Input
Amino acid sequence: SRGEISMPVGSLEEILPWLCFLPPLAGSLIAYPSGRLSRRLPAIVGVASSALSTVASFLLVGFLVEGRYYEIRIPWASLPGWELVFCLLVDPLSILMAVIVSFVGLNIMVYSTAYMRGEPGQERFWSLMCLFLGSMSLFSLAGDLITLLVGWKLIGLCSYALIGHYHTDEPEHWVGGPEPEPRYPPSHCALKAWLTTGLGDVLTLSGVFILFAYSGTFELRALYATAGAWLPALARTPGLLAATSFLLLGGPLSKSAQIPFHEWLPEAMAGPTPVSALIHAATMVKAGVFMAVRLAPVFYVGYHVLGLQEATVFFLLLASLGSLTALLAAAQACVASELKKVLAYSTMSQLGYLMLGVGAMGLSEQPSLALAATFYHLLAHAFFKAALFMVAGVVIHLANSIYMEQMGHLKEEMPVSWALTLLLAFSLIGVPPFPGFWGKDAIISAGVEAGLLIPAALLATCRLLWG
Output
């Protein structure tokens, strides 16, 4: 428990985590009815609630720097032999994720005030965006699997509703094409995302029940601390530990659009551009990586402490599927015609790098280096990809088209946006000294150090061909 601090009741440390997710959740309840009073009020509520969340998360950064952590535990149900606890875990990982979610979310909320002006369904849009930010912050700070899964499902619900924002399916909001390629309405795209990620969620829920059946707890720290006692019992049944690994990774792989759950993300671009920037570039798709990191210590103990070879399946699945997705998605991005779909495929590719980083963390003798590389690239990608999507929204509005072959002479019309796009693209493809270069190469190096030579070679090939 090195780094754990005692927390006085009613102290700032106790209040700040609640302020990370309660203001956006409250904003989601206020934004919808406020639209009846004024058209501007939902946007004001959205920006104000996300700003308060951002301030609270930044005030927690001191604990991140110092490496300290603490828990907030509130028992809410008691049964013979055990109790259910609402738990918030404030540690460096949760603080970093909360900062990314709130700060990137605040910038996109401000961007949305102009982008969504005049669009239909203003109240619904702002209410769902607030609910998403609150749910994502709750997920990031969750200290038990039940709270984590509640935030997880709320994130998926918001994603479904926001992808289908143009649910009346006007032809101008369809994606796909151009002719003779098929085109799809937003409602189709939203349902595809909901069903695909929902399948992964069912798999993860099954894995969580297996963990609880053997460990007797949903709390993350208790799972880590007692893993040495209950993991051997789980591993006595041949193949059960490997099967549990597969089940638990269903949700993270589907949310992060990794093979074989990858087809929903490119079509999710049917939603408004702020939705693409917030949910499908900067935050929600990163939730899969974050959950994998939260579950990884259990299997790390199984492999490095208990010597259970089946525990390596968790990390090998992440590394193999992540590297394969990174290579294939980058190739698909090179032949896509829609601007936002190109960015979506590149997001899948970058998430593949992150999954390899988590796999390398679990198989390495120095997991902190792989973890640092993974979260560095996660942070960098959240910022430059969200910015790329926001610039893409401006370009699509100016060109009045989603297809890149119909976007010409934009350098003369919007030179500042052109220059910013160039700089952001350099970071995306990993040109030194931009942030993408350091993150990608550090993850590949971590993969080599962990003995993941084939996945690392796939990513090295991806770097050489497409950046």
